[in-house]
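Record passed on underneath.
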Amino acid sequence: MCCNAVCKNLLDPLPVKSLMNPSLALCIPAYNAAAYLPRLLNAALSQTVPFDQIWVYDDCSTDDTAEIAESSGANVIRGDVNQGCSVGKNRLAAATDCDWIHFHDADDTLYPHFVETARHWMEKADAPDVVLFDYEVREDAGDRLLYSRHFDAEDLRCDPISYCLREQINPFCGLYRRSTYLQAGGYDTDPQVLYNEDVAFHCRMAIAGLTFAADPTVTVINYLRSGSMSAANQIKCVQAQYQVMRKAADALPGRYSKEISTQLWKMVGVAGSYQDWQTVDVAIALATRLSYPFPADSALFFQLMCRLNPYLAVRIRERLIRSFKPQLRASLSPSYTSTQARSQTLSLHS
């Protein structure tokens, strides 16, 4: 089918039956998830109201991920090459014919009332395109509750772009209208936004004009592990976040400069702590171009230094921290050097 035909189908009015009884697919991107997937699939099959479809994308796993999914009755797509979860989510969204989709990480889980709660939104005549549900963050070992994540429903509804630029939003707590997800382009598969792909995704959805809402009902459990991809790659997360903010600035010329610059100055601090001066410099350059040459919430002396030379100011601040408060850098990997940081940077100037 040609691209124009696909777009036409997406823009056609939904059938009356679809509006009255919308369908929901659980979409699980998975890689070597055999140890965790049974917990999620059991939760999916134990819903008070069932999912209409369950899909698993096996991203070229070397364990029994695909076999476990198939044994539970899930529809399985097998990737030929490991391409990451963003590609997997787009493949899953393209494969299902359900009206709504819910993405879930294979190592997290759902409360039994997730689908029941989601259907309250799906069946609304004026349903938004995206709904975010509150969730719990627990230790994977021991199941201890660490905290609960809450979304500001009014703030999110009034200005989704601002909210998505300011907040880390994970898709495991989201409900997405499939047609508008596809129209907006789905996940950005650019390797430069890897490690910050969820922020990139929600910013893309908001910039495309999708409507957002939040539900305070806790429906999801996110398990925290010390060896997770993001926890083990802090500097890569910062480098990817720069790319997300750069793309947002390009897509929103003259708009949301404060929100973008605030994030840029936060990543300057983190990148500086790792002495990744290349990331520091490009982030400062973009913030300055957006008319925010220093962080508004910083100390007056640092602001004055930034007015003279923000690049030098950040380096002096880092030198002072390492000289007089070395304990603030004690948790950083001692083997991580600025040379390594530069070698890991993915075309920051592009």
About this structure: The chain has two domains: 20-224, 234-344. The beta strands are 24-30, 53-58, 75-78, 100-103, 109-110, 130-139, 145-149, 174-177, 212-224. The first strand starts at residue 24 and ends at 30. The radius of gyration is 22 Å.
